Amino acid sequence: QVQLVESGGGLAQPGGSLRLSCAASGIMFRLCDMGWYRQAPGKQRELVATITRSRTTTYADSVKGRFTISRDNAKSTVYLQMNSLEPEDTAVYYCKAESLGFWGQGTQVTVSS
Fold first, then answer.
1. Under 8 Å CB-to-CB from 108, ≥6 apart: which residues?
2. Burial of 60 (0-12, 13-18, 19+ CB in 10 A)
3. How many CA atoms lie within 13 A of 103 on its CB side?
């Protein structure tokens, strides 16, 4: 059974940091490209960052220089380090096994003073 479980969301102040984790099970994680997406209220889900199995990364323009995606194949976990957070980063963040089309359940990130 495939499971992607996100954690690490919460409330942060503008300029603050959070680190999201997505633990995978039931998949050959090291062979999967992985991605982080987000969906703000009233908006469509959008791509935030991806990391391939060879660790090539891509980022949305809105997060370049602030967010970093990484992976630990030994732990079957993908991370999203989010720095210099802005209120516009408020959303539910989802991880996705790109190669398989599976999604996690999401974790809420709220940036507010």
1. 9, 10, 91, 92, 93
2. middle
3. 11
Q: What is the DSSP letter of 62?
A: T
For 33, the 3-state DSSP assignment is coil
Residues 6+ apart with CB under 8 A from 28: none
Does an H or E element contain 44, and which?
A: none
Residue (of 10, 12, 1, 20) closest to 94 by Cα position: 20
Of 66, 58, 55, give the one whose Cα is nearest residue 18.
66
pLDDT-above-90 percentage for the chain: 97
Chain segment 55-95, per-residue pLDDT in tens:
999 999 999 999 999 999 999 999 999 999 999 999 999 99
Distance in angstroms (rounded) separating the CA atoms of residues 111 and 12 = 5
Instruction: Look up residue 66 and give its amino acid.
Output: R
